[in-house]
């Protein structure tokens, strides 16, 4: 009897030990998961795996820092490198917040994407509350690009030079201060100025809603093709991939869009992926499983495309996602939950990255 109990006891200890090791291996952020982390698996597949980062949680949320350093090898400042934060007054620049993000990235051997030089949002009052001549606004924009890109010269792998310049519901440029005052050539000028300020950085056009062939992506494709024919230094297109489980992106249509951009000689990156669940059907768990499928499908499309070189999310964890703030509804759009714990989408990405 005693002998049987001893064998059972030893077996029990082994089972507990196996469970403990499995738990350690599954928790992101633990030092035991480095070779199984998403960043390590992505590196093995030759792609960057990144996310958008805020300076606030980076400073005051240790779980945020741990998960970020463990699971991602690329960061995009969510807001800190935009026009308003970096150029708050006409003759004053402020790189304090963005430099904090750069320092963290350097410490953790992460690449940095610059975001974004020319956009219709995040513009300071001094710029929008005054009317400018075409020459004045061109001079302001050229100086902005020279100063900001110059400040980070050699430290960034890519810049979102122009963001969301195409109108949503028509094949035309979005009505912005840049288009109204400078004209459509603001786009070409922005890329040429950025290239002059940092010839090493990969220069991207970044937009949402143009992930699949058809619709808005036809306008993006046409504009980029024309610019390339004019010799404008554009190296890639960023597909933001702000999607939902209600209307998930069609993998074949996304793949076809990435392929035709490749035929133009362009790199593609998934730059801001998140997957809304609040407008989906089913239980919370069913919606998280549907979300995991969307992440897995898009990662599969990127891995199968020779010109898809990076896959970035728009936020580290649900707690810091822009979506609940903007849509005023609770949601869980990312791959880590409010507490920084992995969700089904995390495991789905791990599974597809491990597959050969
Ligand atoms: O930091 C200030 C805070 O001090 C102040 O109290 C508060 C009052 O509203 O505003 C805070 O700034 C906000 C900032 O996010 C940081 O939270 C801005 O108002 C708010 O407009 C800003 O929203 C950002 C938005 O871009 C506009 O810049 C979102 O966080 C950011 O996720 C979102 O990201 C964009 C990409 O850049 C481009 N693609 C679409 C994507 C989602 O809209």
Task: Walk me through this protein's architecture.
The chain is α/β, with parallel strands linked by helices. The protein has helices at residues 2-26, 38-44, 55-60, 62-71, 83-86, 96-107, 125-128, 134-151, 177-181, 186-197, 216-229, 251-263, 284-304, 322-327, 344-354, and strands spanning 48-53, 74-77, 111-118, 158-163, 202-207, 236-239, 242-244, 267-276, 308-313. 47% of the residues lie in helices and 15% in strands. The termini are far apart. Mean pLDDT is 93; it is low at 24-32. Bound molecules: ligand G3I.
Outline the fold blueprint.
Layout: H1 2-26, H2 38-44, E1 48-53, H3 55-60, H4 62-71, E2 74-77, H5 83-86, H6 96-107, E3 111-118, H7 125-128, H8 134-151, E4 158-163, H9 177-181, H10 186-197, E5 202-207, H11 216-229, E6 236-239, E7 242-244, H12 251-263, E8 267-276, H13 284-304, E9 308-313, H14 322-327, H15 344-354
Residues 78-79, 82, 121-122, 163, 240, 272, 322 line the site of ligand G3I.
């Amino acid at each position: 009897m005693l002998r049987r109990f001893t064998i059972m006891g030893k077996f029990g200890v082994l089972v507990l030990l196996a469970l403990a090791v499995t738990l350690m291996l599954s928790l992101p952020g633990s030092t035991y998961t480095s070779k199984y982390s998403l960043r390590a698996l992505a590196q093995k597949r030759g792609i960057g795996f990144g996310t958008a980062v805020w300076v606030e949680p980076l400073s005051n949320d240790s779980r945020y820092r741990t998960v970020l350093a463990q699971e991602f090898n690329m960061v995009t400042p969510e807001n800190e490198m935009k026009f308003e934060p970096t150029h708050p007054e006409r003759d004053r620049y402020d790189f304090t917040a963005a430099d904090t993000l750069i320092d963290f990235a350097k410490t953790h051997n992460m690449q940095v994407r610059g975001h974004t030089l020319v956009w219709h949002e995040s513009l300071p009052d001094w710029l929008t509350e005054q009317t400018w001549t075409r020459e004045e606004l061109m001079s302001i924009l050229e100086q902005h690009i020279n100063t900001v890109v110059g400040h980070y010269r050699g430290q960034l792998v890519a810049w979102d030079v122009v963001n969301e310049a195409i109108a949503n519901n028509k094949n035309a440029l979005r009505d912005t201060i840049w288009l109204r005052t400078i004209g459509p050539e603001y786009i070409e000028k922005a890329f040429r100025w950025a290239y002059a300020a940092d010839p090493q950085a990969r220069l991207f056009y970044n937009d949402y809603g143009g992930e699949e062939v058809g619709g808005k992506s036809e306008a993006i494709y046409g504009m980029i093709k024309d610019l390339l024919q004019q010799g404008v230094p554009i190296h890639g297109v960023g597909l933001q991939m702000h999607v939902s489980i209600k209307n998930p992106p069609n993998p074949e249509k996304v793949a076809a869009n990435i392929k035709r951009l490749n035929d133009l000689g362009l790199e593609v990156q998934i730059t801001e992926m998140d997957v809304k669940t609040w407008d989906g059907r089913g239980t919370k768990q069913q919606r998280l499983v549907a979300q995991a499928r969307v992440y897995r499908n898009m990662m599969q499309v990127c891995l199968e495309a020779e010109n898809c070189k990076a896959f970035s999310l728009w936020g580290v964890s649900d707690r810091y996602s822009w979506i609940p703030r903007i849509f005023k509804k609770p949601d869980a759009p990312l791959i880590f939950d409010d507490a920084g714990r992995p969700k089904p989408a995390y495991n789905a990405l791990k599974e597809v990255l491990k597959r050969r």
